[in-house]
Amino acid sequence: MKLRLLALVLSALLLGGCASLINRAASSFANDLEAAIRGYDEPAAVAAALPAFMLIMEARLESSPESAELRLTTARLTQTYATLFSDAEHADSARRLSRRALHHARIGACLHSSRLCELERLDFDSLDERIASFDSRQVEPVYALATSWTGWIAAHSDDFRALADLPRVETLLSWVAERSPGHDDGAVYLYLAVLNSQRPPAAGGQPRKARAYFEKARQASAGRNLLINVLMADSYARLMFDRDLYVDLLESVLATDNDEPEYRLVNQVARARARELLAETEAIFD
């Protein structure tokens, strides 16, 4: 499974979806800082700044441990740092941070609603029954929990017990997509697209379903989020061994001069990844 893709999805998109949480949970300064991070075009500078902000959020939790919104915001920022700014040399750190993020997300979700407590302990039939009791008030915490959970799985991809949780995450994300299709600017479809691009049809995969999710994500983004094409190339096009689509998608990323502040950091990451993948074209399709 290409769990590296799940980490890339999570890391680049989490920053785009936590403004509403920060608005409620932290000061106006925190909200302004979050917007500045998303609009900054130098990932290295963001990597250097995020730890200090994470500690500020942890300090706020010391005085407000029962704040669901603060817990979920801290989870998202911690997972962002764990996945976007870590590599093989820092795998242990990424695992520790992802555990911390998931810990906060689970507590925050449970504080928001008792229906969201201990979902990881439920069997699949019980999980389906529990999800049937959710309503629109649970969309934000369920999404925050599912994305943090995805990051934890990606960081522990060598543990089959972690991989066994993927169907639970997909079930939660599918519920979010059905209940609120435009949530997080349609990013929920991108998670679902990658999750359904992990296996070829002969092995039980559903690439047609994956492509449909990619197209929904592209439609929701209206071309603003260049990461969608990168992930479509690196998962769907590679899975289907479609070299032409692979190259077209990546070249379109490099040819697009998109400088919308809301996607500036995400698109810088996407362009860098597109260059790496284009350089690997011969090795992949030879």
Descriptors:
16 helices, Serine Threonine Protein Phosphatase 5, Tetratricopeptide repeat, globular, mainly alpha, 286 residues
Please, could you describe this protein's structure?
- The longest helix is centred in the middle third of the chain and has 22 residues, at 91-112.
- The relative contact order is 0.13.
- Helix 12 (207-221) packs antiparallel against helix 13 and helix 13 (227-239) runs antiparallel to helix 14 (243-255).
- This protein has one domain (3-285): Alpha Horseshoe (Serine Threonine Protein Phosphatase 5, Tetratricopeptide repeat).
- It has helices at 3-17, 19-25, 28-39, 43-63, 68-84, 91-112, 124-131, 139-155, 160-163, 166-179, 187-195, 207-221, 227-239, 243-255, 264-279, 281-285.
- The chain is an all-alpha fold and 286 residues long.
Which SSEs are present, and which pair or pack?
Blueprint: H1 3-17, H2 19-25, H3 28-39, H4 43-63, H5 68-84, H6 91-112, H7 124-131, H8 139-155, H9 160-163, H10 166-179, H11 187-195, H12 207-221, H13 227-239, H14 243-255, H15 264-279, H16 281-285
Helix pairs in contact: 1-5, 1-8, 1-11, 2-5, 4-5, 5-6, 5-8, 6-8, 7-10, 8-10, 10-11, 11-12, 12-13, 13-14, 13-15, 14-15
